[in-house]
Structures are given as C-alpha cells and as structure tokens.
Amino acid sequence: TRKQWYQRRVRGNLQNHHNPYEEFFRNPKKISLMASDAIFPMLQNSMSFDLGLNPIQFNDDKAVDDFIANVDKDFHLVMILEQLDECLVLFRRLMCWDLEQVIYVKLSVNNDYSASISPEIRQKILEWNAIDLRLYNHFAEKMKRLLAEQDEDFWAEVAELKKINAKFWQQCYNNILPVFDGNKLGYSLHETHAQNTTCKTLATDDFTQTHVIGMKQFKDTLSPSDILMVRNHMQNLRKYNPAMLGWADVHKVLNPDIPADPDTVNEL
Questions:
Q1: How many whole angstroms separate alpha carbon 172 and alpha carbon 163?
Q2: pLDDT tens digits, one per residue of 233-248
Q3: In 33-116, which residue ranges form alpha helices assigned H by DSSP?
Q4: Over the stretch 32-46, which tens digit does the pLDDT of each residue have?
Q5: Model-level pTM?
Q6: Can you say whether residue 259 is alpha, beta or left, with left for phi > 0 and alpha for psi between -120 and 50 degrees?
C-alpha cells in the first residue's frame, strides 16, 4: 500500500537518525525524491492534497484561495483537533444525535520526536507545509468565531460530553498500555466489558476499521490472501492493544448467521 511504501522508503531511512526531522529538513526535496509521484504528496501539504489540491498548484496563490473557499463551501463543519469536544457537540447537533453517539477513545499520542522539535525545525515544518497551514488557519479562525457565538447550553453540553466520555473509559478499560509503533496507545478491557462491541470498536484503529468495512462490502469477491492479510494485521496489533476488535468479532460482522468455528477464528 501507499502507506507501507512510504514507511519503508522514507521513514525507514530516517527513523534510526537521532533527529529525523532535522535530517529530513537538511534537504527535504532530495529525500522526497525517494518517493514516487504517488507518494510525494504524503510528504508535503498532505491534508490539502487529500482534499483535492493538485501539487502543481502549491505555488499558485489564487488556486490555493479558490481551493480553501471550495472546501469551506463543501463542508458544513470542519473540526479542529485542539477543540475536539466542542467540535463533537457541534457535530452532534448537526446530525441530531445523542451525546453517547460521539464518545471517543484516544488511540495516538505525540511521540518523543514530536515533543522535542526545536523552534527552528518547527518553523521549517510550517514553511514546508505552508498550504496546510493556510487551510488550518482558515478553519481555526472560523471555529473560533463559531464557538464565540455559542450560549450556556452549548458549554453545559460540552461539559456533559467530557463527563460521559470519562465514565465510558472507566467502564471499558482498566489499563492504558505502553505506546507502540511510535505513537499508538493500547488498552486492556475490564472483565465486565470483555465482550462489549462498543468498547472494542472504539479501541480499534482507523486502518483496521477501514479494512473491516471493506471486507463487509466486498466479502463475496475477496481472495483468501486479502482476508489473511487483514487477519494477520489485526492479530499483530492485538499483541499491543488487546482491547481492539478481534478476528472473532470480524467473523460476526461478515457472517452474522453462521456460528464461529473456534479453529478458524482463534484470536492469536
């Protein structure tokens, strides 16, 4: 996959360096040449690329302005991670959902490298991702204005979401496990919630969930090798995050009417 290629060719050449960011920004264009045309956008302004901006337009101010305006027009709400609880309450209101439907579990943290970035490297990162910075600043300012318009009921709802989320974490998980794979968090489940699908689903990373959804959509055309790849991926991750979905849970999704065979859904 594109992600795996990037990890092998680019991150693989930097991860053993004492300061990968410093090494990359010594000559970012040279290092980026190790990536194919399909991979390069992952290394610069990746948010903007994912939202549709062509890399050849990175130096075209009008094209960037038009791109940001179009993103603003296309999305009713763009959330800001630093204000996640507030954004989730806004999202809940747009969707007419209950607060319980926007609870979440933290699955990644800043790694040691991120925490030790010097002011000089931080500035280089901002300059290298100048289009993403413009995109972020636009929606951060918009969110700031939107939150300033909210009443006391809104802020009471934000406080209630934090309370509900904390209670959910306490009920589901008894331990936060050591960080693995650079920045991922793992959890262990309370025995009382060992079979709770919600607890397990929210502790499962987006990469795995995307594959599980894809398997459900295309289960009749999947090759055995595709299924084995997902199963091996999940089994490897569950060594570090036992609270996530297991292969038996996937079997229930793919074959809800067929009892699981212990010999074929053995967890690890």
A1: 14
A2: 899 999 999 999 998 8
A3: 46-50, 61-74, 84-95, 112-115
A4: 666 555 566 678 899
A5: 0.81
A6: beta
